[in-house]
């Protein structure tokens, strides 16, 4: 009797693990969040030149690191505020999509892009990491992220955004 119960328990655990594993495989097949699904039609703020290297000096290995190439897109809600001048306080509904490529060859061929997405979810005059949520892939779910907000806290004075009008002027 004990052996039969033990085998049933093992079967339940094995099936549960299999189902959990399969659920993570479904992410590539789902649609992107509608807040950024059409980002390629937005304003590309890095139109003249991609962001590459480590201009902020604290990039580390994030966003493909020093060797990576990055293109940044903003929706119409964010465009005016982001491309303007300080002080920055992006409106609620602002979405920023960063495409990241491992190197110049991938960027030129537009292949193997990774994505990170920032979404401003609060309308307030107070600049706070709590006003933002992040997604770590094009088809990912946006939510609070201690990792993202930790790094972006360095840019707290520019509403937790690194690529803005004043920064882009230094890259020309």
Automatic annotation (TrEMBL):
Pfam families, A to Z: Cytochrome_P460
Cytochrome P460 domain boundaries: 37-163
UniProt signal peptide: 1-26
Database matches in PROSITE patterns: PROKAR_LIPOPROTEIN
Keyword entries, A-Z: Signal
Name of the molecule in the record: Cytochrome P460 domain-containing protein
The species this protein was found in: Granulosicoccus antarcticus IMCC3135
């Amino acid at each position: 009797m004990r052996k039969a119960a033990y085998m049933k328990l093992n079967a339940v655990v094995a099936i549960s693990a299999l189902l959990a594993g399969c659920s993570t495989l479904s992410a590539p097949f789902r649609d992107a969040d509608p807040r950024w699904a059409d980002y390629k039609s937005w304003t590309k703020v890095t139109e003249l030149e991609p962001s590459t290297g480590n201009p902020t000096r604290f990039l580390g290995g994030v966003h493909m690191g020093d060797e990576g190439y990055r293109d940044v897109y903003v929706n119409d809600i964010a465009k005016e505020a982001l491309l303007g001048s300080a002080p920055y306080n992006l409106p609620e509904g602002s979405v920023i999509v960063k495409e990241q490529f491992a190197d110049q060859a991938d960027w030129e061929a537009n292949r193997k892009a990774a994505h990170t997405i920032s979404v401003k979810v609060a309308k307030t005059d107070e600049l706070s990491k709590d006003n933002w949520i992040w997604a770590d892939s094009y088809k990912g779910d946006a939510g609070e992220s201690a990792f993202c907000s930790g790094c972006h806290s360095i840019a707290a004075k520019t509403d937790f955004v690194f690529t803005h009008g004043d920064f882009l002027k230094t890259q020309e």
